[in-house]
């Protein structure tokens, strides 16, 4: 039998494990310390804020629909639902469009129109008020109403029938005794005493019946009082649960409205920064791609001025690289300029963002519009 000083496969396993560890570590380091631009770094955060904005919008729609549906209680339920949905949609559209215009003015033009700001404040305020009122109504739908339960009372039929049977039996015995003891229509003195005893027993039985019925009445009153106390207890518990739930829902409604505004603000900030980064990257790429190198400059210097130049005839299927280079140089000159257009209203230079971007700010655009209207 051959013995080994060490496991022959141990060293190989160690090497493999070390290689796997280094590979996973290097991959993790590359992922952690990989350079990412702004758009990639905050892409998932923007998606998360957009998702929270959708959730906040749904919560606002739910509370607003609950509140507005109570304005049409006296009409048919189909018309009631249709009117509530129409009002909710109109309010939410006004809120979204006005807040979006305010965000655009803040992040793009660095100024906000008064009408847009006022409309946004009114729309957001109305939405928050409707959401709060709807949150106050929701507990009455979510927490069950405390209904009074009829107590199970004890019946008096058994007592009445029992004592009536007793008294009927005594009356029969009394009548039978009287009929058997009559002599010429009269009773003896001792027989009259027996009949009197029967009458007293009947009266005592009647008194016992009245006492049993009175006790049963008191017992039923106690049962009714307990049922009433239980109803009051359940009603107070229901009221406390509704108040607590109403407070929580009101806070949630306000929080969702603020979350909606926060998500819109973050989204506009994210896209504004992405736009800036994109423009800076495009300018850097154009400048780096079309900047003439030192070798090209030397070649241009060595070329004699009176060199033969081919006629500028464009052949079918071929590209005229001289025209392409000339256009590229013109684009470079445009990029190198500090401003690309001049505002016709105030004469200030600015960089246009689209083909119809004529004025430097919104105020200049509005001033020009007023002048044309006059």
Record the strand order, biggest sheet: 1-2
* CA(first)-CA(last) distance: 112 Å
Q: How is the quaternary structure best described? A: single chain
Fraction of residues in β-strands: under 5%
Low-confidence stretches: 297-301, 303-319
Sheet of most strands: 2 strands, antiparallel
What this model shows, in words?
There is one protein chain. The chain has a two-stranded antiparallel ribbon. About 6% of the residues have low confidence. By secondary structure, it is mainly alpha-helical. Helix 3 crosses helix 5 and helix 5 packs antiparallel against helix 7.
Could you list some keywords that capture this structure?
374 residues; mainly alpha; two-stranded antiparallel ribbon
Briefly summarize what is shown.
With 374 residues, the chain is mainly α. The protein has helices spanning 10-32, 38-41, 43-69, 77-109, 114-142, 157-181, 189-290, 294-302, 321-336, 362-373, and strands at 341-342, 349-350. The protein has a two-stranded antiparallel ribbon.
List the SSEs and their pairings.
Elements: H1 10-32, H2 38-41, H3 43-69, H4 77-109, H5 114-142, H6 157-181, H7 189-290, H8 294-302, H9 321-336, E1 341-342, E2 349-350, H10 362-373
Helix pairs in contact: 3-4, 3-5, 3-7, 4-5, 4-7, 5-7, 6-7, 7-9
């Amino acid at each position: 039998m051959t013995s080994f000083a060490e496991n022959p496969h141990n060293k190989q396993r160690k090497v493999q494990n070390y290689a796997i560890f280094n590979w996973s570590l290097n991959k993790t380091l590359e992922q952690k310390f990989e350079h990412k631009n702004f758009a990639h770094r905050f892409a998932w955060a923007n998606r998360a804020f957009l998702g929270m904005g959708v959730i906040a919008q749904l919560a606002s729609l739910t509370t607003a629909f609950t509140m507005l549906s109570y304005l049409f209680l006296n009409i048919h339920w189909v018309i009631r639902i249709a009117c509530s949905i129409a009002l909710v949609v109109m309010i939410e559209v006004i809120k979204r469009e006005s807040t979006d215009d305010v965000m655009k003015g803040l992040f793009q033009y660095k100024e906000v129109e008064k009408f847009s700001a006022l409309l946004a404040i009114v729309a957001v305020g109305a939405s928050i008020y409707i959401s709060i009122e709807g949150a106050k109504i929701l507990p009455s739908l979510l927490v069950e109403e405390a209904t009074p339960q009829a107590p199970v009372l004890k019946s008096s039929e058994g007592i009445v029938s029992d004592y009536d049977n007793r008294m009927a039996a005594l009356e029969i015995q009394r009548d039978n005794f009287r009929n058997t003891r009559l002599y010429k229509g009269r009773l003896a003195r001792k027989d009259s005493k027996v009949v009197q005893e029967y009458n007293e027993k009947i009266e005592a039985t009647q008194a016992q019946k009245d006492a049993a019925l009175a006790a049963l009445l008191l017992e039923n009153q106690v049962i009714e009082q307990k049922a009433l106390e239980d109803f009051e207890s359940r009603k107070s518990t229901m009221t406390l649960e509704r108040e607590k739930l109403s407070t929580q829902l009101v806070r949630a409604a306000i929080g969702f409205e603020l979350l909606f505004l926060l998500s819109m603000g973050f989204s506009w900030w994210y896209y504004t920064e992405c736009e800036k980064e994109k423009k800076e990257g495009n300018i850097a790429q154009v400048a780096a791609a079309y900047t003439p190198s030192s070798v090209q400059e030397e070649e241009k210097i060595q070329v004699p001025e009176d060199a033969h130049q081919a006629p500028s005839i464009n052949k079918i299927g071929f590209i005229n690289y001289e025209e392409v280079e000339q256009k590229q140089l013109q684009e470079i000159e445009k990029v190198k300029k500090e401003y690309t257009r001049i505002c016709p209203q105030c004469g200030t230079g600015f960089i246009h963002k689209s083909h119809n971007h004529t004025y430097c700010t919104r105020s200049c655009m509005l001033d020009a519009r007023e002048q044309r209207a006059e």
